[in-house]
Write a structure and sequence with these properties.
Layout lengths: L1 H19 L7 E3 L3 E2 L1 E3 H8 L4 E4 L14 E6 L2 E6 L2 E8 L8 E3 L2 E3 L5 H7 L1 H5 L2 E4 L5 E7 L8 E8 L2 E9 L3
Antiparallel strand pairs: 1-2, 1-8, 3-7, 4-5, 5-6, 6-7, 7-13, 8-9, 10-11, 11-12, 12-13
């Protein structure tokens, strides 16, 4: 009986701890100024002009080019998907620009974020880290976090190369 109580308490503790290892769309911002969902007109008020606006490449959005009027908006390493004037965050790549960062409540992430420090903040997620290899057979460590919002259909992926954060991607399910 005591073993079952111990096991229940352990599972409850792990579940509560794992729930803390989430990443919320609602509280995250790019460089503490740009929300993850923003109208293009509000984006222009903050940053004046995008670096580039382009058609979505295959695999960047759900559906085909004929099904949606989707554009990708790029600004200093950030990529947003724009549909009908509303922009939704998709990626922040730290390789082209080093002055952008990603903020979630009191945590912030940029090109100086190390795999070790991220793993201390999200230890359970780091336990199931995956290694992917690029076309040059260079390894990249990927740590995934889910959003706390039950209805969200995305997964946050943090890519580390040479133990430094390279990019943050919010992947959506196309189901």
């Amino acid at each position: 009986m005591k073993f079952l109580q111990f096991l229940s308490a352990l599972l409850l503790t792990l579940t509560c701890h794992a729930q803390d290892e989430t990443f919320s769309w609602e509280t995250a911002k790019v460089s503490n100024r740009l929300p993850l969902t923003v109208s293009y007109s509000d984006f222009q008020k903050i940053y004046k002009k995008a670096d580039r606006i382009a058609d979505a490449e295959p695999g960047q959005t759900c559906g085909t080019a004929d099904e949606a009027n989707v554009k990708m908006v790029y600004y200093k390493g950030a990529r947003y998907e724009m549909d009908n004037g509303i922009m939704n965050f998709r990626e922040l790549d730290f390789t082209p620009r080093k002055n952008m960062y990603f903020q979630q409540k009191d945590d912030w992430f940029d090109h100086t974020t190390t795999l070790k420090s991220f793993s201390k903040t999200y230890p359970d997620a780091a336990l199931i880290m995956v290694t992917e290899y690029d076309e040059n057979d260079e390894p990249t460590q990927v740590i995934s976090l889910l959003p706390p919002e039950a209805e969200a259909d995305c997964e946050w992926k943090f890519y580390f190369k040479d133990n430094k954060l390279q990019r943050i991607v919010c992947e959506f399910s196309c189901d």
